[in-house]
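Board notes (copied after class):
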Amino acid sequence: MSEETPTFAYYRGAKPPRFATRTELEAALILDYHRVPWEYEPRTFILEKDAQGNIVEAFTPDFYLPDLDLYIEVTQMKQSLVTTKNRKVRRLREQYPEIRIKLLYKHDFVQLAKKFDLAPPR
């Protein structure tokens, strides 16, 4: 994303976040608006290794909300096209049952953006 990142009051990371999509930026704005402390892509979970121990598949959720101990993955794709993300979230839940994660779709953020008078995700 080429737009300048705003300053966030509730961001808890060490360096400024670099969002991959407008939807991620909208999510960050909403979290900050509600004074929810958050981190951006703080952890990668290994989902599969090959016989030599090389990582074959991994998953890095977009946000972590430390006060809620919850990871959030947002997607701007149509629900019908999120098969890969749904599969990764399902595998994460299977392999790391102690990890709480929620997948939010573009339509969730369109509704939140309207409610809080933010530009809707593109």
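Comment from the instructor: The mean pLDDT is 86. The domain at 23-115 is CATH 3.40.960.10 (Endonuclease; Chain A).
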